[in-house]
Design brief:
269 residues; single chain; Fructose-1,6-Bisphosphatase, Chain A, domain 1; 5-stranded mixed beta sheet; D-Maltodextrin-Binding Protein, domain 2; 7-stranded mixed beta sheet
């Protein structure tokens, strides 16, 4: 089946799931914690979203693999050529606080390479899509990363949670403009759109957090790399990613990667 057809089904899954999330968001819901010490909340919206997306995508593509934050992982995916990598709600902390900075993130990889991405903010109705070789879109219109040259003047999108806790105060001498925003997937989409110039993850992530955003940024003319400037290979046995992943224009990626490597100790804080 063509990537365009896969995109159509992924978009439909995101839109249907977005309606479920909207309904829960507007009402009352309980909040559980996977790890209270880590402030890692989970709600019925996360679980229902995961179930609904999985039902649609694997119903349409039963031979594909599946990796999701809210599904118990299985080694079966490692033998699959096509694998869906999904975060049903990236930014659950913002969802819980009714801050509309969270997103459904659906990525598809083929032989470890991201080839399709869908990111939907169901509250603002921003639908970001990308297919390998066909550019990145926001609600059907082409978007592009900002081609900046200076990292000090870059508009850097950073974790709202880490900013609130004062964990990013050390950035002030290096960046004139860093903006707190929830959800790494949503931040990556914002960089692809040109609303921000760069995004750096200052804490570890997982493949489902960044897979869809990875291809969005690339198809918008930017790049997304690890601190060593290598691309991420997806669908690995361990889905964990180190702190310091970087999304930005190709013009400044070497400078930002050098900055991240220089400040590894601060990233561990």
């Amino acid at each position: 089946m063509s990537l365009q057809k896969r995109l159509q089904i992924a978009v439909e899954a995101a839109k249907q799931t977005g309606k479920i999330i909207q309904s829960i968001y507007q009402g009352e819901f309980e909040v559980d914690y996977k790890d209270k010490a880590a402030d890692d909340p989970v709600t019925v919206a996360d679980r229902e979203s995961d179930r609904h997306i999985k039902e649609i995508l694997l119903g349409a593509f039963p031979e594909d693999g599946w990796l999701s934050e809210e599904t118990v992982d299985s080694d079966e995916r490692l033998d699959k050529e096509w694998v869906w990598i999904v975060d049903p709600i990236d930014g659950t902390r913002e969802f819980v606080k009714h801050i509309p900075e969270f997103a459904i993130s659906i990525g598809l990889v083929h032989k470890s390479e991201p080839v399709l991405g869908v990111i939907l903010n169901p509250i603002t109705n921003e639908l970001f899509t990308a297919v390998k070789g066909r550019g990145a879109l926001l609600n059907g219109k082409s978007v592009y990363v900002n081609q900046i040259d200076s990292i000090k003047q870059a508009k850097l999108l950073v974790s709202r949670t880490y900013t609130t806790k004062g964990k990013l105060d050390w950035l002030e001498p290096y960046f004139e403009n860093f903006v707190p925003m929830g959800s790494i997937a949503y931040k990556m989409a914002a960089v692809a759109q040109g609303r921000g110039d760069a995004v750096i993850s200052f804490h570890p992530q997982y493949e489902w957090d960044v897979c869809a955003g990875d291809i969005l940024i690339r198809e918008a003319g930017g790049t997304f790399v690890l601190p060593d400037e290598n691309r991420i290979r997806y669908n690995r046995p361990d889905a964990h990613l180190p702190a310091g992943t970087i999304g930005c224009s190709k013009r400044v990626v070497q400078k930002l990667a050098a900055f991240v490597r220089q400040h590894r100790e601060e990233l561990k804080a």
